[in-house]
Specification:
Elements lengths: L1 H13 L15 E4 L6 H31 L6 H13 L7 E12 L4 E11 L1 H9 L1 H36 L5 H20 L3
Antiparallel strand pairs: 1-3, 2-3
C-alpha cells in the first residue's frame, strides 16, 4: 500500500530533468517522396503517409523540448513521458500539414505501370502551436487523475488488509484462502479498472 506512494515519491525526487533541445532552423517547405505503388491513389497515399510520419517526428521533437516547461513539478518525469507518448499517439499530424506542390513519376514496366508521388509540404506552425497548446493541461489533468488512482489504491489496500484481518478473526480462520483470493482480486481489479480512466 505504501509502496505505491514510496515509488511515486522516489520517481519524483530522483528522476533527472530532461535537457531542453534547441529547435534547429528549418526551411519553409521541403520535398518528401513516397514509396513506389501500382496505382496513382496508392502512390499519393504513400507520400502523404511519409509526410505525416515526418511531421509526427517533428511533433515528438517539439514535445521533448517543451516537456520541462509544461510538466507539473510534482509529476515524475518517467510518468510524464508515458503520458506524453500516449498523447502523441492520439494526435493527427495531417491537420498541421500543408501540401504546396505534387509531382508524380510514372514508370512503364511493359505489362503494368508503377507510380511514385513526391510532395512539397510545409508545416503549418499555427496548427502545430494549437496542437501543442493543450499538452500542459493534458499532463496536469491526467497527472492529477493518476495521483488520485495511486492514493485510492493505497487506501483500498489498507481497507482490504483491515477487512481481511477482521473477517479472518470473526471466521476463526475458516475461510482464509477464499478471503485472500477475494481481497487480492479486488485489490488488483479495482486499480486496473481505474487506470482505464487515466
Amino acid at each position: 500500500m505504501s509502496a505505491v506512494l514510496s515509488a511515486w515519491l522516489f520517481l519524483a525526487v530522483t528522476a533527472p530533468l530532461p535537457s531542453i533541445v534547441p529547435q534547429d532552423a528549418r526551411g519553409p517547405a521541403h520535398r518528401i517522396a513516397g514509396s513506389v505503388e501500382l496505382t496513382e491513389a496508392a502512390a499519393d497515399a504513400a507520400a502523404l503517409e511519409s509526410a505525416a510520419d515526418q511531421l509526427h517526428d517533428e511533433i515528438e521533437r517539439r514535445t521533448d523540448a517543451a516537456l520541462p516547461r509544461v510538466t507539473p513539478r510534482w509529476l515524475p518525469v518517467p510518468v510524464a513521458r508515458v503520458l506524453v507518448a500516449d498523447w502523441i499517439a492520439r494526435q493527427d499530424p495531417r491537420d498541421a500539414l500543408e501540401i504546396v506542390d505534387r509531382d508524380r513519376t510514372v514508370r512503364d514496366h511493359g505489362s503494368f505501370a508503377s507510380y511514385q508521388t513526391e510532395l512539397v509540404v510545409r508545416h503549418d506552425q499555427k496548427a502545430l502551436d494549437r496542437l501543442l497548446a493543450g499538452l500542459r493541461s493534458e499532463l496536469r489533468r491526467r497527472g492529477v487523475t493518476l495521483a488520485y488512482v495511486a492514493g485510492g489504491t493505497a487506501g483500498l489496500w489498507s481497507f482490504l488488509v483491515l477487512a481481511y484481518w477482521w473477517l479472518d478473526r470473526v471466521s476463526r480462520g475458516y475461510m482464509s484462502w477464499r478471503l485472500r483470493f477475494l481481497f487480492a482480486g479486488m485489490g488488483v481489479a479495482a486499480p486496473g479498472l481505474a487506470m482505464l480512466f487515466v
